Amino acid sequence: MKKLLFDFFPLILFFVALKFGDIYVATSVAVITTIIQVIWLKITHRKIDASTWLSLIVIVVFGGATLYLHDETFIKWKPTVLYWLFALILLGGRLFNKNFIRQLMGHQLQLPETAWNKMNTSWALFFIIVGIINVYVAFSGHFTTEQWGTFKVFGMTLLLVVFAVGQSLWLSKHIQANNQQ
């Protein structure tokens, strides 16, 4: 639970800053807290996984562009770019016979190769779809920047939780079926 709160800390502060300030204040807060997070992990000699490094790079680049050019378009693209990079990594890994979902979770679960492949593909598709939804909410003209920020923090998080629960249910059925054979 502590790690989950630690991981969501910049997102929560982004939301608070957006509510009390504007998109530029919120972007500054997100960039600074993400940098501080990585520095803290380094100082405390904790492992910094690849997704954290990727998130840091994307927030610094897109948040920096938002602040430097004073254009909120860049920060609105940040979730989509990050999610699409995750999808590209998952799908691209398959070209080299790498299943990054299995590498991430394989020490916790024993599954047949087909199940790992389905899970890897489903996560990649999830990231692609959520990226598309973000583009719609950010740029369709139907939502304000504050509404987009609320969606980014709560809507995307809820989608992630619902998808992860669905994956867990699918996994439990798959594991039960394998145990019955």
TrEMBL record:
First-listed, main subcellular location of the protein, grouped into a coarse class: membrane
Membrane topology according to the record: Multi-pass membrane protein
Entry keyword annotation includes Nuclease: no
Pfam families: IspA
Keywords: Cell inner membrane, Cell membrane, Membrane, Transmembrane, Transmembrane helix
GO cellular component: plasma membrane
Subcellular location as annotated: Cell inner membrane
Presence of keyword Phosphoprotein: no
Sequence intervals crossing the membrane: 12-40, 52-69, 81-101, 122-139, 151-171
Function of the protein: Plays a role in cell envelope biogenesis, maintenance of cell envelope integrity and membrane homeostasis.
Family statement: Belongs to the YciB family.
Record-given protein name: Inner membrane-spanning protein YciB
Species in which this protein is naturally found: Pelistega europaea
Organism ancestry: Bacteria, Pseudomonadati, Pseudomonadota, Betaproteobacteria, Burkholderiales
